[in-house]
Amino acid sequence: MNGVLAEAREFVRGMEENPAPERVEVALMPPFTLLHPLAEKLSSRGIRLGAQNVYYEPKGAFTGSISPLMLRDAGCHYVILGHSERRDIMGEKEDTIKHKLLAAWDAGLEPILCIGEHLEDRKAGTTNKVLDQQLAILEGSDNSKPLTIAYEPVWAIGTGVTPTLDEVRETHAFIHEKLQGFGQDRRVLYGGSVNPNNAAELLALPGVDGALVGGASLKADSFSQIVVAASNLDR
After folding, report:
1. pLDDT digit string, tens, across residues 31-89
2. Every domain of the chain and the residues it spans
3. If one looks up domain 5-231 in CATH, what number appears?
4. Residue ranges with strand state E in the chain
5. Residue 77: active-site member
6. Among residues 16, 22, 25, 83, which one is catalytic?
7. Residue 11 CB contacts under 8 Å (≥ 6 apart), including other chains
């Protein structure tokens, strides 16, 4: 919940001062109020647009909600589902997230499904159990439908603390293995205090197919540095 129109315009100007992304897909997920104003500007730079959340009904008496069709109409390609803040603060459960997933697919959107454990889960050694439960909504789903997974250890979001590289690598390996068990072949992004200083080493890890960037995406300069780090990867 950051950014008004003047700040968004400043961000776009900052992106224009940096090299256009090469060898890497870039997407921005601003608040709902900024989707339409940014759609054309981002498209002209080859940057895809996404939303941070959606409701699962196409229309109706759901005051204050945004439908998947509205997101498509605003120019969105992506929508984030199951972000830890939606789960923890707004109380979203797996059945609600699954409804949203199916609705996003019906509208032609590509969901970015967020999964991740809390610090007590990591300390208790139950990370994989938590992720297994969160990924269970994909069992039996159609692998031809577009989908990206984002692993975000909740205790690393906005704290400046990241898991060790071994922890990230091992967790991504588990997620890929679990997805393969469902017959799913998906990109798995890492999210959790990604910044210009750690992006290159995180993105170079096997099984890490990209980044879901939080605080560092609020400024064009720091976000552009992460894009450059991804572009420079030798793979």
Report:
1. 999 999 999 999 988 899 999 999 999 999 999 999 999 999 999 999 999 999 999 99
2. 5-231
3. 3.20.20.70
4. 27-28, 48-51, 78-81, 110-115, 148-151, 187-191, 211-212
5. no
6. 83
7. 3, 218, 219, 220
pLDDT value of residue 22: 78
The whole-number pLDDT of residue 21 equals: 75
Catalytic pick from 25, 85, 92, 152? 152
List, as one string, the DSSP characters of 150-198: EE--GGGTTTS----HHHHHHHHHHHHHHHHHTT---EEEEESS--TTT
Strand partners, 149: 113, 188
Look at residue 235 in the predicted model and tell me its pLDDT. Answer: 72
pTM of the model: 0.96
Catalytic residue at 94? no
And the tokens for 36?
Answer: 């339409």
Vertex 47 angle, CA 45 and 48, to 5°: 140
